[in-house]
Amino acid sequence: MKRRVVITGGAGISALGIDWTETELSLRTCENKVVTMKEWEKYPKVNTRLGAPISNWNEPNYPRKKIRGMGRVALMAVNSADMALQMSGLADDPVITKGRHGIAYGSSAGSVDASMEFFSVLNNTESKGLNATTYIRSMPQTCAVNIGIFFGLTGRLLTTNTACTAGSLSIGLGYEAIANGQQDVMICGGAEELNVTGAAVFDTLFATSTKNDSPKLSPAAFDRDRDGLVIGEGAGTLILEELQHAKARGATILMEIVGFGTNTDGSHVTQPNKATMQISMELALQSAQLSPDAIGYVNAHGTATTHGDVAETQATRACFSRRVPISSQKSYIGHTLGACGALETWFTINMMKQKWFAPNLNLNNLDPACGDLDYLTGKGYTLDTEYAMCNNFAFGGINTSIILKRWG
Question: Which of 208, 218, 229, 405 is the most exposed place for a label (fewest CB within 10 A)?
Answer without folding.
Answer: 405
